[in-house]
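Side project, low priority. Logging it here so it doesn't get lost.
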Amino acid sequence: MNTIIAFDNFLIYLRLHKGRSPKTLEQYAFHIWRLIRWLEPRWTKRLPEWLNHFFFLPKKSELSIDKRSIIRDLISIFPAVIESVKKEDIDAWRLELSDSGLSAKTVNAHIITIRSWLKYLKKEQIACLDPTTLDLMRVQDREVTFLTGDEIERYFTVIPRESIQWKRDYAISECIYSTGLRISELTALNRQDVNFDTLEFAVRGKWGKLRVVYLTEQASLAIQAYLEARSDHFDPLFIRHNYSESDINSSLLSDDSIRLSRFHITNMVKTYGLQASILKNMHAHTLRHSFATTLLTNWADIRIIQELLGHASITTTQVYTHVTNPKLKEAHQKYHK
């Protein structure tokens, strides 16, 4: 089977049968397209620039494109068949990715995508490389940045609450620390998602997995105080407030354009961390990590924490046990005199 056809069929399978999110589809497409172009280096330089983004076009593209016609053209440009791709090819491609400066984690992400692609092709009874022959590179243990109890108190104390922006920032911080949400999950929240009576709501995380998270009373009050200060009609739970009031009912503003970005929240966490004199490399997930470590240090079951964080594997959650286990320090103090 031609690699382009195998590629396109896989993306259709992910979208229709697996229900993958647009962001996941974009990442898979980017990784596989990168491999296909590497397999056919003679033709890559001849491609028009827009074609490099063909498989990443949004569903409602303004471009009028006859996709089938372009697929046929690409097949003639990239004649390689998936059956001809060998393990030596993938290893050479992996080495080139690594030599280009990509981290081992990023290179592994590419290989994981290729393994998923090959696994799908095997399932469709298409002859191809055995995905189990592709091993991942060894990576350093994941570094977890979390706040201590004292740092948590300083962080929340430093956030003012007079303006609507400050009320929002405080509510966002309380929400993440209370629920352990990923930043992408937080930015996707709408007003109607949150049940303030039961202090809980459902969130759809990675791979479309649904889980229930819980608000503390303090987080609930902070979010409600922010919502009461708003006079707009927008659905997103957290929005930017640097828009003109005269545009509030115009077509210039929409739920998508007014919704906060991950970048904004990351900068917000960093800013308040600096103001609180926290000398750590704070980032978007610092409050999520702090949620997990707070539960662990208070002896919550690791399986419960896994469920609350939405981790598919307990191995991912166990990274927190290495940085929060008080028995390690107790043993050191007891036996190392």
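Brief comment: The radius of gyration is 24 Å.
Revisit when time allows.
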